[in-house]
Amino acid sequence: MPNAPDSDIYRTLLESTRAIPWTIDWASKTFTYIGPQIEPLLGWTPESWATVNDWVERMHPDDRQRVVDFCVSQSLAGVDHEADYRAMTRDGRYVWIRDVVHVVRDAQGEVTQLIGFMFDITERKRSEEQLAELQKTLEELSYQDGLTGVANRRMFDVVIDREWLAACRDRQPLSLVVIDIDWFKQYNDHHGHLKGDECLRRVARLLQSVARRPRDFVGRFGGEEFVLVLPATDRDTAAAIAEHCRQQVLDACIDHPQSGTGDCLTVSAGVGTTVPEPGADPVEFIESVDRRLYQAKLGGRNRVVGEPAVAGDVADRAAELAH
Description:
This protein has helices at residues 6-15, 38-42, 52-57, 61-76, 122-142, 153-170, 184-191, 193-210, 235-252, 282-298, 311-321, and strands spanning 20-25, 30-34, 81-88, 94-105, 111-120, 174-181, 217-222, 225-231, 267-274, 304-305. By secondary structure, the protein is an alpha+beta fold. The chain folds into two domains: 6-127, PAS domain (Beta-Lactamase); 143-321, Alpha-Beta Plaits. Strands 2-1-5-4-3 form a five-stranded antiparallel β-sheet, with helices on both faces. A five-stranded mixed β-sheet has the order 7-8-6-9-10, with helices on both faces. The longest helix has 21 residues, at 122-142. Residues 172-309 form the GGDEF domain. Residues 6-79 form the PAS domain.
């Protein structure tokens, strides 16, 4: 059997691979060849790929500008390159493609031809997206308190640093509320730890129902302590929010016969507001609010201790928040 011409051998080899070979004449911007594998993948016949406009128009609109600009600039510079994009099938679906492009230049360095391969990378992209989604979920879980569902201490550290810098930059007040469940050890001793866990979850939900503005943050500080970060919130509003939290828990009438402040569960809170100065440490601010919580405990519990404010103003604002 006589040997086939070299060009026929090369074409047979190219067309037997899953990659889709193609060539473009740079001067006319026309396809001089595209492999028959294109039709099983995208549904378009090889004959329908006449000019680069066919390639552009069959690209996802969200990918088009980015990919075309990149490929043209790289080709003009004579640089081999790769591009990932979504190609439209004849029936209107999209398939992820990776184009690997070699730029051919003449003796004078002028671009004459592009030679490339298209690869179907749909499954790879799907796996990458699933992995990215999994990583996102794991990251979210790493910042979430497993018991109550609110943010954990790790997330609080991230948020307080971020809001501290924003408040310093914008010269805006930043408020913090630290809340502790009163007589919680006695609650656990009387009701048991399973009921204690449910109590923590219920208090977390009550706090979330109060701190519901877009940037308000509710987290579990540790044990039976919770923390609210309130960006762009002045002293009296922060005190009113803390008072509303206290009242919400009291109004829920969670049974607690072993409490020293009545038959229902109560909380105590410390509140602070600051406009951070450049170079100031948020740790000192957090500690000052924690000291106010301690004062609330020493003062009899079931109360809010903050900076001096007009009691009527705080009560009025707390009432407004409740409606």
